[in-house]
Amino acid sequence: MAGKGTVVACRNFNATDDAEVLYKAMKGLGTNEDAILQLLSSRSNHQRQDIKHAYKTLFGKDLVDNLKGELGGKFETLIVAMMTAPLAYDVSSLRNAIKGAGTEEKVLVEILASRSPQQVKEIVAAYRKEYDDDLEEDISGDTSGHFKRLLVILLQANRQSGVQSELIESDAQTLFQAGEHKFGTDEQTFVTILGNRSAEHLRKVFDAYMKLSGFEMEESIKRETSGSLQDLLLAVVKCARSIPAYFAETLYYSMKGAGTDDNTLIRAMVTRSEVDLMDVRTEFRKLFACSLFSMIKGDTGGDFRKALLLLCGGDDA
């Protein structure tokens, strides 16, 4: 089932014309931020890459460098994210999460739990090409315990496909024995099963687990584990159930409470905008008492808000 994005390719696209519009928007005194955000939010990522080439061809300058020179703060971070090809964006997000001061575990969790095995393979290869480093080694050197083990399993990108009917009951039973039914939790069992079975298989296991234990899988994980491992297990379970619902929650909690987690808000809006942001909006409306649009509107300001609302693409009142 293909998801629906909010950002689609512009039909009468002309990269040279767009490059000239952007050049004019940045030329002379003051920057026309509005022209920049209106144009870029109505082009697909692929078209934005073409605009970069056209810009360099026309002006001998790097468009992203020019944008960075003219913009600032989180609006700049958002525009630069929109100008980055999706694979390169995932790779640099992971690199920054590992190499920054302290590991930003939530970035590792979000990307590795939500991307398909094929995408993970591409990420690993692109990471090696870009940095001449091994992503698995870098992540292993920065994490520990069962949290590390599950990340390593996800990095193998060998998740099974289809449903193995004969294993549904035994998987549910094994998870029950490893958690609710045991004094102390056998984390390895959770890690192995949740890291290797397909999403459609896991959904059936969760149903069987509920019948068997009387608990939703998520409830047991919350009771049986803690810290980063809990965050990762929950993300894997939620993504097996519904990736759009997982991102709806991710977006909600990036804005809920004191202060906004701008980096998560930017990452989720940009990476889902052409994948399934329409579906994310639908799930958001089902899960929470407001729309994604209204929450962004109430939580952000200025050009940053304008650009995010254009990516959001509409209100679900």
UniProtKB/TrEMBL annotation:
One of its GO terms (cellular component) is vesicle membrane. Signal peptide: none annotated. SUPFAM superfamilies: Annexin. Pfam families: Annexin. It comes from the Eukaryota. The keyword Chloroplast does not apply. One of its GO terms (biological process) is negative regulation of coagulation. Keywords: Annexin, Calcium, Calcium/phospholipid-binding, Repeat. GO terms for molecular function: calcium ion binding; calcium-dependent phospholipid binding; phosphatidylserine binding. Belongs to the annexin family. A pair of annexin repeats may form one binding site for calcium and phospholipid. This is Annexin. It comes from Dissostichus eleginoides.
